[in-house]
Amino acid sequence: MTITVLIADDHPIVRDGLRGILSAEPAGGEEGFEVLGEAADGAEAVTLAERLRPAVVLMDLRMPGTDGVTAISELARLGNPARVLVLTTYDTDSDVLPAIEAGATGYLLKDAPREELFRAVRAAARGQAVLSPAVAGRLMGRMREPAREPLSQRELEVLALVARGSSNKETAKKLFISEATVKTHLIHVYAKLGVKDRAAAVAVAFERGLLGS
C-alpha cells in the first residue's frame, strides 16, 4: 500500500529532495509513498490537489503569490479530503497558529530527520495530528500562559509607529494626541504583551503577527 503525496514548496531543490526521499523503498514493511505532483505556490497546490486527490499535501507556508495558510483554508473550503502536513522552516506563533486554525493536520520543521518525516506523513494520512517537538512545546507554553487582553486599535497604531522608529513626540503628532497619552498607551501595551520596553514590545508583536510580517 502506498500513500499518495503532493509537494508544495517554492524551492525546486527542496521539492527534488523531498521527492527523492519519499520515493525510496520503505523499510520494515511500512507503507511507501507515491509523489503525484509538485506545486511552486499555494494556488498551484490547490489546483493540483483538486485534480490529483492526494492523501497528503506537504505544504510550505511562505511562498510567493498564494501562501500556505491561504491554500490550506481554500482546500478546507472546497472540502478536499487531503490531509495537509505543514513542512516549513518557521515555528513562530504567527506561523504555527494560523496554519493549524486553517485546518492543517500537522506541523513539521524542515530539519526533521527523514524517519520523523515518514512517521508524520503516515500519521497525517490516518488523520492523526502531528506536531514537531518544538512546535508542540510552543503551543503548550501558550496554553499555560495567562490569557492577556488584546491590544486596542489605538494601542496597535501606537505600536506600529514605534516599530517604524517614531519617538513618543513624533507618534503623538502623527496621531493627534498628547505625548503623555502615548506613554500611557505604551504602558498598557507592555502589560498586555508581558514585556518591559519598546524593543521587546515590537519583537513580540511581530512574532505574534500583530504588526504583519
From TrEMBL:
Residues annotated with 4-aspartylphosphate modification: 60
InterPro entries associated with the record: CheY-like_superfamily (IPR011006), NreC/VraR/RcsB-like_REC (IPR058245), Sig_transdc_resp-reg_C-effctor (IPR016032), Sig_transdc_resp-reg_receiver (IPR001789), Tscrpt_reg_LuxR_C (IPR000792), WalR-like (IPR039420)
SUPFAM superfamilies according to UniProt: C-terminal effector domain of the bipartite response regulators, CheY-like
Swiss-Prot/TrEMBL keywords: DNA-binding, Phosphoprotein, Transcription, Transcription regulation
Record-annotated HTH luxR-type domain positions: 144-209
Pfam families given in the database record: GerE, Response_reg
UniProt cross-references to CDD domains, sorted A to Z: LuxR_C_like, REC_NarL-like
Chain ranges of the Response regulatory domain: 4-125
Protein name, entry field: Response regulator transcription factor
Species name: Amycolatopsis heterodermiae
